């Protein structure tokens, strides 16, 4: 492996506007599911989350865990199997149905009267509820997450660092300064771990390194 990818102390790009014109529409996202362009899905689950799961849960039981943009993340079943309640939001109905099918979970579905066209899919056990609707009908992702945080909250956020002048995303580049700007007034932001996430397929993006960072946000 060459030196450009061995160091996890990668360059930060101060221009957070470099990707501002790159928009992933709802149609783009749903098309990825239909065309099976879902390399973001990790069949074995997110390994950094698995590694730091106990630190996140801190021995607590009966938590309510929110998965924004959940797709068919297998991690949702990890939490449900530990006795926690899971709420997810995903625009792709296909992704939601695949989650229940692949996890061998029976479920029901019903419309959400307050949101035209939206549905909620609930596991028969009652501890997993996945809402099929557009999270971004609300103005800002960061504002949404902050509004959902109760006293004593814990929030895990995974972001990627790479050269955004070479690749427009997704996933989108998020700098340390941007994280502090969006969440720092309310949260203590701790980087739990950085890992080299670069794979052969990323060469086609025109980049030569990709670092994943896992942050833990707690109440200030």
From TrEMBL:
InterPro entries: SAM-dependent_MTases_sf (IPR029063), Thiopurine_S-MeTrfase (IPR025835), TPMT (IPR008854). Pfam families: TPMT (PF05724). Its EC number is 2.1.1.67. Keywords: Cytoplasm, Methyltransferase, S-adenosyl-L-methionine, Transferase. It catalyses: S-adenosyl-L-methionine + a thiopurine = S-adenosyl-L-homocysteine + a thiopurine S-methylether. GO terms for molecular function: thiopurine S-methyltransferase activity. The keyword Hydrolase does not apply. One of its GO terms (cellular component) is cytoplasm. The keyword Transferase applies. One of its GO terms (biological process) is methylation. Transmembrane segments: none annotated. It comes from the Eukaryota. It is found in: Cytoplasm. It is an enzyme of class 2 (transferase). Belongs to the class I-like SAM-binding methyltransferase superfamily. TPMT family. Monomer. This is Thiopurine S-methyltransferase. The lineage of its organism: Eukaryota, Metazoa, Chordata, Craniata, Vertebrata.
């Amino acid at each position: 492996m060459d030196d450009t990818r061995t160091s996890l102390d990668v360059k930060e790009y101060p221009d957070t506007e470099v990707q501002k014109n790159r928009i992933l529409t709802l149609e783009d996202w749903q098309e990825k599911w239909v065309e099976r362009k879902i390399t973001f899905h990790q069949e074995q689950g997110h390994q950094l989350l698995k590694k730091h799961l106990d630190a996140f849960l801190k021995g607590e039981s009966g938590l309510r865990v929110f998965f924004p943009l959940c797709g068919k993340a297998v991690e949702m079943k990890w939490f449900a199997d530990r006795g926690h309640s899971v709420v997810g939001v995903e625009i792709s109905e296909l992704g939601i149905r695949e989650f229940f099918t692949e996890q061998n979970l029976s479920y029901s579905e019903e419309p959400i009267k307050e949101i035209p066209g939206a549905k909620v899919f609930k596991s028969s056990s009652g501890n997993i509820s996945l809402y099929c609707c557009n999270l971004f009908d609300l103005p800002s992702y960061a504002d949404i997450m902050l509004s959902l945080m109760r006293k004593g909250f814990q929030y895990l956020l995974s972001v990627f660092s790479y050269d955004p002048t070479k690749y427009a995303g997704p996933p989108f580049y998020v700098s340390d300064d941007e994280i502090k700007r969006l969440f720092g007034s309310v949260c203590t932001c701790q980087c739990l771990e950085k890992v080299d996430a670069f794979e052969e397929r990323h060469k086609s993006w025109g980049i030569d390194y990709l670092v994943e960072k896992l942050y833990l946000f707690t109440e200030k």
